[in-house]
Amino acid sequence: MLLQFFKALAHESRLRLLGLIAAREHSVQELAALVALKEPTVSHHLAMLREAGLVSLRQDGNTHWYGLEHKTLSRLSRSLLARDQLEALAGTKPPRSSDDRMLQNYLTEDGRLKAFPATLKKRRPILRWLARHFEEGRTYSEAEVNETIERRHHDRETFRRELIAHKMLARKDGSYWRLPESGWVG
Amino acid sequence: MLLQFFKALAHESRLRLLGLIAAREHSVQELAALVALKEPTVSHHLAMLREAGLVSLRQDGNTHWYGLEHKTLSRLSRSLLARDQLEALAGTKPPRSSDDRMLQNYLTEDGRLKAFPATLKKRRPILRWLARHFEEGRTYSEAEVNETIERRHHDRETFRRELIAHKMLARKDGSYWRLPESGWVG
DNA sequence: TGTCTAATTAGATAGTTGTCGAATTAATGG
DNA sequence: CCATTAATTCGACAACTATCTAATTAGACA
Questions:
Q1: What mean pLDDT, rounded, does chain A reach?
Q2: Residue B110: pLDDT band by 50, 70, 90 thresholds?
Q3: Residue of B nearest to A85 (CA)
Q4: What is the CATH architecture of B2-72?
Q5: Does A95-183 match A2-73 at the fold level?
């Protein structure tokens, strides 16, 4: 979603169009004249802005009036300020394996866990996903481990315990580190 | 430079990189491994993010640590909320004055300075251009001034001095701020 | 000095996106 | 229905961007 938003605004013509629309509603013809592009081109840009939820369409007769969607703009710009939100972007990889597709059902838009299923079969890919958020070859304090987990789910105790039980994380003298995937249980 | 900001974020790889960097500082190698791209590619993306002021570079030995620039992010996302700002986008026209055309010869495609001419007559429009990259109504630390200059030219000392000599920038107690254009010398 | 490592820059290529003219759809009114 | 007007969709081409490998730069160290 966020990517679509940025793509929509990452072109001078579209920024200009949005600027005009922000001032008041405009028809396609008007916009084409104002930005010196042909109507099909403008139509194409407007479709992208609309797809991103930035403008809305009101039809009267056969002229189309495009107006600004304030809500989208304020919602998205606000979400940029939330640090967690931003970090969640890192996990935006296209899902491939069936595990990944399964996982998708348990993740929110912003890369947090919605729930933790009861069956072991479903829990394993989730733990793998979580374990991969730890870097290999460094140690973590317990506080850091908790922090890393809590960025994805509030129940740090359960997940810390499970990660260790599945040999994804190891602990010694209060220090933690990630174990190689080859040895993971599950 | 709102367009630059959006362009920088309008690509999945760069969003991912920014997400990783938001969590903590990373080196180019780390990032390349994490997003599964080659180092030159990552380097290229980082340059764009840096150009947009979204990340900063801290060099230690010969590894480069990239970190998040919270300020830029919050400043720009806030400016999206300001309606006026948005409407102003409509007026983004290509430059045409004779100064602007002169300036064009000294700028690279990506908006950096190729050279700094010897004659005062030619130097003035360049300094004006540079000074406009500072915001009015806020103060900058010396580090921030350097960073802003270096985004356009490596010789921060010369330009900092010249900006002050032409009364475009003022300094007091180690803080800098932009002066109104009406008072600029040249 | 020479070597090693990390990063950047250059150059090539493949993929994506912006723009246009032509053809098509949709609404309105004789 | 047919003509008119506004908008969208289609197909082609040009411009731009992402990515790679190879070459270069810069720091550390011995």
A1: 81
A2: very low
A3: B19
A4: Orthogonal Bundle (1.10)
A5: yes
Q: Dihedrals φ, ψ of A67, to 5°?
A: -130, 165
CB contact under 8 A, A19 and B73: no
pLDDT digits (tens, 9 = 90+) for A37-48: 999 999 999 999
**What would the pLDDT profile of B50-62 be if each residue is shown by its tens digit?**
999 999 998 888 8
SS (H, E, C) A137-175: CCEEEHHHHHHHHHCCCCCHHHHHHHHHHCCCEEEECCE
Select from A34, A81, A87 the Cβ nearest to the Cβ of B23: A87
Q: Which nucleotides of C are covered by protein (CB under 7 A)?
A: 5-11, 17-23, 26-28
Which of chain B's residues have a Cβ under 8 Å away from the Cβ of A37? none
- Across B27-41, B78-92, B122-136, B139-153, least confident range: B78-92
CB-closest option in B10, B70, B83 to A6:
B10
Render pLDDT for A109-160 as a digit per residue (tens, 0 to 9).
445 677 777 788 778 888 887 887 776 666 777 877 776 777 677 778 888 9
Torsion of CA A112, A118, A124, A126, to 10 degrees: -10
Nucleotide with the nearest C1' to A62 CA: C27
B105-132 in b/e form (b: 16+ CB < 10 A) is ebeeeeeebeebeeeeebbbbbbbbbbe
Topology of A95-183 in CATH?
Arc Repressor Mutant, subunit A (1.10.10)
